[in-house]
UniProtKB/TrEMBL annotation:
Protein name: GH18 domain-containing protein
Keywords: Glycosidase, Hydrolase, Signal
Biological source species: Monodon monoceros
GO biological process, one term: chitin catabolic process
Secretion signal, residue range per the UniProt entry: 1-26
GO molecular function terms noted in the UniProt entry: chitin binding; chitinase activity
A GO CC annotation given for this chain: extracellular space
Residue ranges of domain GH18 in the record: 1-297
Keyword Nucleotide-binding: no
Listed InterPro entries: Chitinase_II/V-like_cat, Chitinase_insertion_sf, GH, GH18_Domain-Containing, Glyco_hydro18_cat
Amino acid sequence: LRSRRLIPSLHGALELASLLLPLLLALSVGLGADCHCQAPALCRPITHRPSPRLRGDVSIRDIINATFRASWLAQQVKLAKTQYMDGINLDKKLLVTFDVSWSPNCLGRRCYNYTGIADACDFLFVMSYGERSLVWSQCIAGANSPYTKTLTGYDDYIKIGINPKKLVMGIPWYGYDYTCQNLSANHVCTTAKYPCKDAVYCQVAYQMIMKQVNSSTSGRLWDKIQQSPYYHYQDQAGHFHQVWYDDPQSISLKAAYVQNRGLLGIGMWHANCLDYSGDAIDKQQTEEMWKALKPKL
């Protein structure tokens, strides 16, 4: 059997019918006599030269219509499923964006003309994470994206004259694992000597955190000041670790600010940090993280 696995890059719909016709004709070929596939459609032989991609274009005048857009997306999802494709790639052309630090205040020598950059772009993606990458005070573990500190960054961008509709909040779907030189009774994890840099912690994807937090020595804890969850665990060498991360509770708080302050939107870094397997618990955790991006106010 030859594989009919396609890697689509869907750029639209106007040319879709003409492109699909040869493929649909091929699918009408009868099943092989000795087909052992659970899905018989997989046993239909390819009678033409297979194409690695299926392309098309969508007119901007059509795609801005919500009814058309919903119908078109449903058609593409159905097509991807019936043709056993790997996925769908929506390639938006001519969109100019720029990733910026969580604060415009010249942190880590990132001193740029942010208002000029914003004027030249469609929007700025504000990376509201890694906010403890340069800490010159006492080195203690802390939130990757602390609530007040994060929102102050957006307020500062707006104060220098950037329209809120030019700002997209970027939140982390990963956490930081700190190795503690000392872990106090009130949960203060002291790390390597300052200045605290990225070397004092390592990144951990949300899906891995969810597999560890319930078996940790502390269980899930909540910091009321930073509005962020964290927990402790002990490794095989006997060293204590403290892990800070974001979950639906902390993300919902920041997502509410997006709506209340009138920002353009919210995004994450990055989607692969979630578990998309068929496990029921993993599926629920993944759905809750996506829903947290648009909280009910």
